[in-house]
Amino acid sequence: MPKHILVTGPSRSGKSEWAERLAHRCNKPIIYVATALENLDDSEWQQRIEKHRRRRPSHWQTLSVPYDLCLTIEQANPPHCLLIDSLGTWVANGLEQDEESWEAIATRLLTSIQQASVDLIFVAEETGWGVVPAYPLGRLFRDRLGYLTRQLGVMVDTTYLVTGGHALNLTLLGNPVDKF
């Protein structure tokens, strides 16, 4: 049975590094699925992407998948492990989708994960811990990412919260809200 893991937490908490450590420990060929869109006009964004690249082992395969994450998961074959970094960036890339289209994409993603024949490690940002965004697109992003993170959290084998430089295994410490 493939293992599915969710690593979530706030910005700069160490969640990507924790996910990379988990991927390394799985002792399988790693496919790093980068969801970021490169923007050569944004040097700060490019520096962030480059920092992630430098941290990855050279033998890991990297795929740039800003949009069709479902297809990437569906086409993956054992014995690979997909490290998907990050769910928030992927959600942001599709914010122009209307609600009906988005719901179909989210449902397909969740189905793809349930049917995946490979290990999956997701990195997802926690965005709802602060103030409610003052603009509609910010609220839409927060709500869509929050929905997917909640669905994944109760669906995967293990969910970690990384905050303050520590990884907490929520699967061991918590109770799924949907199962009360």
Structural features, described:
The chain is an alpha/beta fold. The chain has one domain (28-175): 3-Layer(aba) Sandwich (Rossmann fold), CATH 3.40.50. The chain is 44% helix and 21% strand. It contains seven helices and seven strands; from the N terminus they run βαβαβαβααβαββα. It has helices spanning 15-25, 43-55, 69-75, 87-93, 99-115, 136-155, 170-173; strands spanning 4-9, 30-34, 61-64, 81-85, 119-125, 158-163, 166-169. The protein has a seven-stranded mixed sheet, sandwiched between helices. Helix 2 links the parallel strand 2 and strand 3. Helix 3 (69-75) packs parallel to helix 5 (99-115) and helix 4 crosses helix 6 (136-155). The longest helix is centred in the C-terminal third of the chain and has 20 residues, at 136-155. It is globular, with a radius of gyration of 16 Å. The two termini are 26 Å apart.
Beta-strand residue percentage: 15-25%
Mean pLDDT: 94
Indicate the low-confidence ranges by residue numbers. Answer: none
Overall CATH architecture: 3-Layer(aba) Sandwich
What is the number of helical segments per DSSP (H or I, 4+ residues)? 7
**Strand segment tally:** 7
- Portion in helices: 40-55%
Neighbour order of strands in the largest sheet:
3-2-4-5-1-6-7
CATH topology: Rossmann fold
Largest sheet report? 7 strands, mixed
- CATH class wording: Alpha Beta
Structural class: alpha/beta
- What kind of assembly state do the chains in view correspond to? single chain
Kindly give the count of domains. Answer: 1
What is the straight-line distance between the termini?
Answer: 26 Å
Dominant shape: globular
Compressed to H and E, one letter per element, the order equals EHEHEHEHHEHEEH
- Rg from Cα: 16 Å
What is the CATH superfamily? P-loop containing nucleotide triphosphate hydrolases
